[in-house]
Amino acid sequence: MRHRYLVAMLAALIGAGLAGLTSGAAGASTVKKSGGGKLTVALSEPPISLNAFGPNDADPDTFEINKQVFNALVDPGKKPGTYVPDLATRWVRQGPNTWRFTLNTKIRFANGKHVSAQDVVADLDTLTKSGTALSALWTSFASASAAGPRVVVIRTTQPMGTMLDALSLLPIVPAADVKNTSYWNKPFGTGPFEVTNFVPDQSVTLKPNPRYAGRRPAITSLDFVSITNPADLTSYVKSGQVDVVLQAPPSQASQLSGHGIKVAIVPSYSYDFVWFNCSKPPFSNQLVRQAMLYALPLRQIIRSIWGKYGTIGTAPIPSTIFGYSRQTPYPYDPAKAKQLLARAGYPNGFSTSLMWESGMAPNLDTMAAAFTSAWSQIGVHVQLQPLPPATWLSNLDSLNFSMDLQSNTDVTGDADYTLGRLYTATADRFGFKNAYLTSLLEDARSSVNPALRKKLYARAISFIWKEALGVFPVQTNSIFVWRDTVRGVTFPPSGIVSFASASVQK
């Protein structure tokens, strides 16, 4: 699982030349539509793979491409926790552990085949058996069956209050192709676009899907490209080679605003964090973990790195997420940090390492250096390890790290996507297994009572915070950049941007 910093929605507008934005869905902003043409979108990293059922299924960039190509059974509604029909026209919870979905079988895939219940069954079966990051959302899945061509019945081993939440992330793929490796090089679905060219780690090119059931996209070509150098990004946008930037570095925001370029920032579903590997010393000791937090002047670090584009973290999830419960940040107290290290048996400190994926998100390198400098003041000497994506992912999955720095985005806006997927004993993402925490998160996932779920998440968050399972320094704001010739783009709370209605004004 590669957690990259992902853009979320616009709630506040800044900079010059922002006239022309109109209010759209709750927590979103919309640019009015006109004309057609080619649209080029810059990603900090293009996908390694487009396989929505593979090891990179939770990558934000994979989500972004798949949003253009596939539909799900349901879509998130305008308010958090609400859902609207997509490929499913209606659904009903028939019992504590049984859900029934009726499909719109008039919709066709780009190859002309009608969507059927068997496609959904095959997709669910593949995902739940994949062992990937998103499969962790389906721990209570029992079976899926087709009750005729239009009806899917999903059964679970216990109540699953997050059923619609999880289904909103399940792309519906033809059953015959879901395990076909070659299909994922140029995937097609029922969405507004289909892939015409994919160069892993470089670019993705899409064209309109001629069988799309909605209004045919106005743009003739949708290109996603990788531009990792901030200086290059600025020049490409100003010269018109790039139309939209989904992840602009804070250092470039002021340089990009104006002269036919629009910039907007907003609190997002994204945050940066450090995990301690709790399965081995010294981080198996709670006192050491707490010492690492007391040693960080987080307010100063966040202000110097992020400025107005980030706020200090007050939970292991952002405040914009359902289930958030505010915690008091650990104060900067290096003297107390040294006392805790001495009590833990490390009066002279220790040596360790901090890994992260190179290019994952803006400012990770800078943050790593700032943390390392602060920790050295209490005798903790950290070797910095920026790693290539494949190496980083392998180390993360095998728990071959001491500390891990990441960016993450809770794409569903629900605490289960982060806490229920990553912090249970079954997930075992960073070597911490606790029956009490696991029970809280499993109970929250199974409950269909929002008020009860919030209480359970509040207890889980308090436990994570007191145990100091990680450093949660910053809740990041998103920085959108687009040329004023771009129209018809809505930036939703999920941070996954659809370009189905986009156009480029000549």
Count of distinct structural domains: 3
Structural class: alpha+beta
Tell me, what's the shape? globular
Distance between the termini: 40 Å
Oligomer: single chain
Number of helices: 13
CATH level 1 name of the largest domain = Alpha Beta
Number of strands: 23
Mean pLDDT: 88
Query: Low-confidence segments, ≥5 residues, pLDDT <50?
Result: 1-34
- The portion of residues forming beta strands comes to 25-35%
Radius of gyration: 23 Å
Which percent bin holds the helix content? 25-40%
Which architecture of the largest domain would the CATH scheme give at its second level?
Answer: Roll
Largest sheet: 12 strands, mixed
Tell me about this structure.
With 506 residues, the protein is an alpha+beta fold. The protein folds into three domains: 12-65 and 181-266 and 478-504, D-Maltodextrin-Binding Protein, domain 2 (3-Layer(aba) Sandwich), CATH 3.40.190.10; 74-167, Dipeptide-binding Protein, domain 1; 268-477, Roll (Dipeptide-binding Protein, domain 3). It has 13 helices and 23 strands. A hairpin with a 6-residue loop joins strand 5 and strand 6 (83-85). Helix 4 (230-239) packs parallel to helix 5 (250-256), helix 6 runs antiparallel to helix 8 and helix 12 (435-446) runs antiparallel to helix 13. The radius of gyration is 23 Å and the shape is globular. Mean pLDDT is 88; it is low at 1-34.
